[in-house]
Amino acid sequence: MILNKFLARLVWVIVLLWSKTIKFRMVNMDVRERFLARGENCIYAFWHGSLLMLLQSHHDSGLLIPVSESKDGEFITRVIINFGFEVARGSSKRKGDKALLSLINKMRKGKNVGITVDGPRGPLHKVKKGVAFLAGVSKTPIVPVAIAAKRFWTLNRSWDKLIIPIPFTEGLIMLGDPIYVSGTTEQEIESIQKKLEMELIRLTRTAHEIFWPQTETQA
Predict the structure, then answer these.
(1) CA distance 20 to 14
(2) What is the tens place of the pLDDT at every residue in 176-205?
(3) Cys-Cys crosslink for 192: which of 35, 53, 70, 132, Cβ 3.0 to 4.6 Å?
(4) Cβ pair 152, 165 in contact under 8 A
(5) Measured between alpha carbons, how far is 87 from 30 in angstroms, rounded to an integer?
(6) In sequence order, what DSSP letters do the residues of the chain get, joined into one string?
(7) pLDDT at 91
(8) Residues 78, 89: contact at Cβ < 8 Å?
């Protein structure tokens, strides 16, 4: 327990210092501003491999993030809390109802949610049903989020191919247009899954091409 606290704190310090060397660019942030102006919240949806850059660029944002009840999830929770995010524990397999209720209750109080839509274990870049179901139940729009970096490493041994920006490079965060969900029927959920997946692939390619124009990217 003490070791986990220490390691989580160490990760936070390292990543926070690392982030100060990155020059972040924000694209299409007017999407977020429109929600703020109307006093409405949303669900930010992104690939699991984008998580490090989003922790770096959005620390102390208070964003609510669901994390699994696994042992790995316990460590991730400690790291995320250090960055100033809130956490709802649970997954589709363990205590899922508890996590869903926690998310909905906090969203009704105005909290925005961030979800790694292909997490926690993959498959890579395959949107799962949870985000569409949550959006349908809470009647909250989904905002796709993509990241890119001018110079970066990819953690190829991890299933999510985690993107790690090289110190002193440029990073980019791009928002897509909101996706609205009309209900929770199986047909609607599957339709939103496909739509969000295609949009995240397109948005990631667009973000990448800002730094690397006219090059092919792997979705």
Answers:
(1) 10
(2) 999 999 999 999 999 999 999 999 999 999
(3) 132
(4) yes
(5) 26
(6) -HHHHHHHHHHHHHHHHHHTT-EEEEESTHHHHHHHHHT---EEEE-GGGHHHHHHHSTTS--EEEE-SSHHHHHHHHHHHHTT-EEEE--SSSSHHHHHHHHHHHHHTT--EEEETTTTT--TT---HHHHHHHHHHT--EEEEEEEESSEEEETTSTT-EEEEPTT-EEEEEE---B------HHHHHHHHHHHHHHHHHHHHHHHHHHSTT-----
(7) 58
(8) no
Domain map of the chain by residue range? 2-211
The number of residues making up the chain comes to 219
Predicted confidence band at 140 (pLDDT cuts at 50, 70, 90)? Answer: very high
Taking residues 155-170, what's their average pLDDT?
A: 96
Nearest to 167 by CA among 66, 51, 23, 29: 23
% of the chain with per-residue pLDDT over 70: 92
Q: Tell me, what amino acid is at 188?
A: E
Residue tagged 């920006």 (tokens): 165
